[in-house]
Amino acid sequence: MPTQLIVQEKAFTPDEIKTLIFAFEDTLSYLNWVKRDDEVALVIARQILAIAALGERDPQKLRTSTLSALRLGPNGMM
Q1: Inter-residue contact 32 to 43 (CB < 8 Å)
Q2: Hey, is 38 helix, strand or coil?
Q3: Greatest CA separation found in the chain?
Q4: 3-class SS shares of the chain: helix, strand, coil, % to 5
Q5: How far apart are CA 2 and CA 55, in angstroms?
Q6: Any residues with CB less than 8 A from the CB of 31 and at least 6 apart, and which?
Q7: pLDDT tens digits along 8-67
Q8: Cα separation of 71 and 9, whole Å?
Q9: Are 3 and 36 a contacting pair, CB within 8 Å?
């Protein structure tokens, strides 16, 4: 499950992990994506981790940057 990927990441504090999970859930919610364990959700989780690894911690910016990087909009399309 993608949230497990986030939780297992050792580079972040517990508070940062909560922020990343919030950003992940917020991104999926924005996309109206209900499947939390499919390939799309995994790609989104990895993208959020990649952006966070660069120092971003704001959940809204994580969502916006992820959507932009993956060229996604509501319902998984741009």
Answers
A1: no
A2: coil
A3: 33
A4: 70, 0, 30
A5: 20
A6: 67, 72, 73, 74, 75, 76
A7: 767 889 999 999 999 999 999 999 999 888 999 999 999 999 999 999 999 999 999 999
A8: 25
A9: yes
